[in-house]
Design a protein that fits this description.
alpha/beta, 9-stranded mixed beta sheet, 8-stranded parallel beta sheet, 16 helices, 17 strands, binds 2H-imidazol-4-ylacetic acid, binds zinc ion
Length: about 425
Amino acid sequence: MTTHPIDLLLTGIGTLVTPLGIRPLRGTDMQQVQTIHRAAVAIRGKTIVAVGTEHDVLRQIEKVPVLQTVDLEGRLVTPGLVDPHTHLVHGGSRENELSLKRAGVSYLEILAQGGGILSTVRATRAASPAQLLTQATRSLNEMLLQGVTTVEAKSGYGLTVEDELKQLEVARKLHEFHPVDVVSTFLGAHAIPEEYKANPEGYVQLVIEQMLPAVAERELAEFCDVFCEEGVFTADQSRRILQAAQFLGMTPKLHADEIESLGGAELAAEVGAISAEHLLAASDAGLAAMAAAGTIAVLLPGTSFNLGAAPARARDMIDRFHLPVALATDYNPGSSPTESIQLIIALASLKLRMTPEEILTAVTLNAASAIGRAQEIGSVEPGKRADLAVFDAPNLAYLPYHFGINHTFAVVKNGRVVVWERRRV
Ligand code: IZC
Ligand code: ZN
């Protein structure tokens, strides 16, 4: 230990729980988390430098000056939570579709009638960058207050070159000024816009020939995603778009087999996608192919819950296919209008039958892995960034058990306390 001062020393941690490593944990390994009682964490700048029992950490830093000590009074600490699938930046909302939904009109029927995603496209096109920024900031604040320190944000409500860039530029601005890190994904292939209804191939061409190069040139997205779904983009169109994105240096992701099984899981594996999302209707062959390719399954139990659909086969994915599973809110104005990662934690227990340890891995290390950030975040270990969530909870199982409220007491982001007593500081 060098004698450079410790900037922040967290003591009095009742229980510290974290997965370990810089790679996603697969299958039954997701259960393997480290638990330390009476723990402490020492932070220098933005980086964790010591983790262990209070006794061990204090001994390690014996001769080192400490600039600030914060006593967490017995609370639970985990890595800062990571939400690896959101549609954060958008205009408007869709509560006007609630009665249609309750009358039994399906998600894809509403979309086919020009509502759904297309309704949000109209609102997003009409919104100024400042309006989009204000609305997304409100959501990002809510996520931070829940313990989230990094989110992924997809475009896909512009569907013109200009409006896709507008959304991605708002996401970049959020990343720059907000404590939560925002990682961008280009999702120009989210729906066929009204003006291309009679010519979907023309839209695919626009995505490949104009949008992708414009996004790549401005370095506005690390990832490219496609909504591969019945009546939206076919597997063949999805493949062409993702291959073009890869050629420009973007990493593929895929909305795969959410409602109908189009071979999305297979396609995600084939193109070497970092993750495949939803997977409610994924085939056994597709899941096996994902496991062989190392593709992470990002499960979105808020969406299946809200759509009244059967949940993803998380137990099969973990126990039989030995897949790395991550969890996300899918925050969006249609199928999952919630910023609450803690609701997702509860649903993962209730509906996906995941254990508290598997859930923690899925919202930290595996979620970080799904957005290419496992080297820096997703666990509480020396060398990783000092992103931590502090909960008013006696143990890990308490989080999924006591549902419907926000357990987060404090958040440390990049070594700074940014939430304390449930408020931004
Ligand atoms: O706005 O409905 N599933 N895309 C694919 C969504 C949900 C977002 C939306
Ligand atoms: Zn989505």
